[in-house]
Amino acid sequence: MKSAAIKQLPKRERPANLRGFDRSLPMSLLRAREAVMKEFIPSLKEFGLTPQQWRVIRSLEQHGEQPLGKLAENCFLLMPSLSRIVQNLEAREFVSRKAVAGDQRSSMIVLSASGKDLFKRIAPRSAERYNRITERFGYGKLELLYELLEELVERLDDEQELLDSRSN
Amino acid sequence: MKSAAIKQLPKRERPANLRGFDRSLPMSLLRAREAVMKEFIPSLKEFGLTPQQWRVIRSLEQHGEQPLGKLAENCFLLMPSLSRIVQNLEAREFVSRKAVAGDQRSSMIVLSASGKDLFKRIAPRSAERYNRITERFGYGKLELLYELLEELVERLDDEQELLDSRSN
DNA sequence: CAAATAAGATTAACATGTTAAATAATTATA
DNA sequence: TATAATTATTTAACATGTTAATCTTATTTG
Predict the structure, then answer these.
(1) Which nucleotide is nearest to B82 (CA to C1')?
(2) How many CB pairs under 8 A join A and B?
(3) Which pLDDT does position A23 carry in this prediction?
């Protein structure tokens, strides 16, 4: 019985499920991301920020004031989430809204003075953590990982566009 | 002015922030995961399952009945989330609980007949998607990506243990 | 120009992530 | 053995992810 089962394998096919369903690609990416986030979250929490709130502050500091739509795009957040996040940051006066001339639907989100201050206090810590990761893992490997991740996204997005265009 | 600024760069140091804060490691991992999940989520949704609910069903199918603790570990879910998820799956009769002799705190989570049936209907689609990703991205690159992700987690976990042991 | 459409943003409703607190059963210890 | 500490799980409270519905303002069109 066993020999018959073995005989079917040697075809040198790659297994249908690389490593069963556990250790699947989504799972591996999730684990990796969690491991990385564990490095950053504690210092954010000291300052009372969630990772998403930090993303927003960071984006505003780097790219300046933005309408919600751009901010959502840059922070990779959906509008409903961002809407709540900005309300939160606004209540704590880390950001404010500035009217846009000619369109009353939209407004610019602006990083306040205390928002900038918060950024200045957190940024060095994040950078330090980042350097530590680079040290630990190796600069070359990290670059390679970036490239692979980017290419993976590109390939999957290509396919997505194909499917989209077919249904149009 | 400009020449002075340029003169400080050539030290051949790698930039402190690989690609600014955008395109950071957490962000890249998130984007990659989202891109991958976009492949799987639609078919899950057809069957009324979230990715997390699917993880639970998958784990039960693969590893058999488990106490909640093991299930949480295998599915990479925190207990409060899993607790709610199992309640949901229980209400829909995809799983049930079986008493454990000798410990009334814990119970085994069991995949029901309709749970197994659901698995059988979804699994082929997932496998198909997975194969498509492998095709698109390349088997070798995928393996390389797995290795890098695993090693990243190992390295960061090592560091974590160091920090933990210091504080004990 | 008035009605229909579209665009930007928010709200609603539900599922999950996350930390802390609560509950109940079990084990360890004085 | 009564009590304290531990273990397994759940609940609470708040933030986010996600889809659909709503609301307001702009734009398009008949």
Answers:
(1) C16
(2) 161
(3) 73
